[in-house]
Amino acid sequence: MNLDTVTNLFDTYRMAPWRIQRQWIVNFLLAVVSLAMVAALYLDVTARAAIAGREIQNLTYQMAVVNQTNADLETRLASLTSASVMEQRAQSLGYRPLTTDEIEYLAVPGYVRSQPDILAATPQPGLSAPTIPPEYTQSLLEWFDLAFQSLGETQ
After folding, report:
1. pTM for the full model?
2. In the chain, what are the domain boundaries?
3. Cα separation, 56 vs 27, whole angstroms
């Protein structure tokens, strides 16, 4: 390359300053589009998280409502099955308390009343209680007493 060619290139380049401006504008627009894409992605993730949080709040509220309804129904059932209400309902249906003269006991042949399970261990024949060596049943005072007695005998 000679000097004329280089000078010609610089002159040509100087005559078209819009090329530099176009490069700057394209780079700037590329940066703006990139930032817009990142912002849109961030906005999408944030919106999804907010929607999920709101759904969790709604489900928590529904759980609280269902728990309250369940507690109300349990309270109503307890009041309907209380002894006084059941007695009133039985009397309204024509039932009355029995007297001791009206009670009849029936003996059922072959019926054996079940015995309660006894949880205590029953001693088995042939087995003796474990013995504990005297060293483990001796108190500290008894040990001191024996030690002093043995000292007195050795002197």
Report:
1. 0.43
2. 3-91
3. 44
